[in-house]
């Protein structure tokens, strides 16, 4: 299983989630990438090369925030010729109103980096459907940096709304009582990831 972190983070942020998924019986391989320096397609190419070296007949992917979008870009129109499922955690598949607000200034665009810039330019919406079952987890506890830049009028995790996290091609989706960053330490999130990777559905 390949774990992919979100904006401004690194593989270290996935340590607790990786430990809990390992207890479920999965071998975990956290992937670190430069979230700001490279654009979405460059990071996708690097992730594809990393995942190709992961051993096993099955390769699952779990991505937090931007990491989930990078996974979709990685599997866009091409796969690893090995089966597996995908779970995204608070990933802004439909864009991010908070990021749009931050990106209105030159400093904000530099702060967000090139991958988010590609997301805001609509690249994620143009990705072809992934040929894997995808599970989408969204959060409903509005605690996060996004609240500093935009007032959401719908359920959100403090950064990404439930609608922004939604994905039409998803096999299943679920909203859990957690914030955006809280997903990384939530036992409920880890449990639901395990359930989806085993069955292709969440436990509702």
From TrEMBL:
The keyword Lipid metabolism does not apply. It holds the Pfam family Abhydrolase_6. GO terms for molecular function: transferase activity. It comes from the Bacteria. Keywords: Transferase. The keyword Transport does not apply. This is Acetyltransferase.
């Amino acid at each position: 299983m390949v774990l992919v972190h979100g904006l401004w983070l690194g593989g270290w942020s996935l340590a607790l989630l990786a430990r809990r998924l390992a207890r479920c019986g999965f071998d975990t391989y956290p992937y670190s990438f430069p979230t700001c320096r490279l654009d979405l397609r460059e990071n996708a190419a690097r992730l594809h090369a990393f995942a190709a070296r992961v051993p096993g007949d099955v390769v699952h992917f779990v991505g937090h925030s931007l990491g989930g979008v990078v996974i979709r870009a990685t599997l866009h129109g091409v796969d690893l010729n090995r089966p597996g499922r995908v779970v995204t955690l608070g990933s802004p598949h439909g864009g991010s109103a908070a990021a749009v607000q931050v990106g209105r200034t030159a400093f904000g665009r530099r702060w967000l980096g090139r991958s988010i810039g590609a997301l805001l330019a609509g690249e994620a919406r143009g990705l072809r459907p992934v040929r894997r079952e995808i599970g989408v987890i969204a959060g409903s506890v509005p605690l996060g940096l996004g609240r500093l830049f935009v007032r959401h009028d719908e359920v959100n995790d403090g950064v990404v709304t439930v609608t922004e996290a939604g994905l039409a091609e998803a096999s299943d989706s679920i909203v859990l009582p957690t914030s955006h960053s809280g997903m990384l330490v939530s036992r409920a999130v880890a449990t639901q990831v395990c359930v989806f990777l085993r069955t292709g559905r969440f436990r509702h």
